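Sequence only, no structure available. Ideas?
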Amino acid sequence: MESCPGGNGGFDLIRQWVASRVAGAREKLSKSVERTGLSTTIRNSWIEIIYMAGIIVMSAGVVSALASPVGQSYIIYPGRDGQSIPETVINAFALILGFGGLYFSYLSGRQTVKPRLVGFFLVLGILLIAGAIYIEIYVYLQK
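Reply:
I predicted one. Tokens follow.
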């Protein structure tokens, strides 16, 4: 077998083409992220994000779950004197659903939202709030 003149010239050309495409896609992605301000918002408000996560974790009952641990065979501990870690996760999920529902309901009433999305945001918000209430009532009735 004879090799092509130039050795790996064909592979180098393909490698350069792929590298230029990847660099272009990376540049477009970074410009779109900067345009939305998402990275700047996260960079500037990391303390608020940690604070909200702390509120959710504390409201879900992590202190109760750690202070009086129960058997891990229970997803929802049937007594009122203890709480399992999975139950804490379920409570945190329900809280996040409720907060999301409140936020979407808030977005439906803002004047800056497109008029065709007002009904969508309101229905989505009400459904999320109803789902959170259902989960919390289910957990309460299991105890």
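The radius of gyration is 25 Å.
Hope that gets you unstuck.
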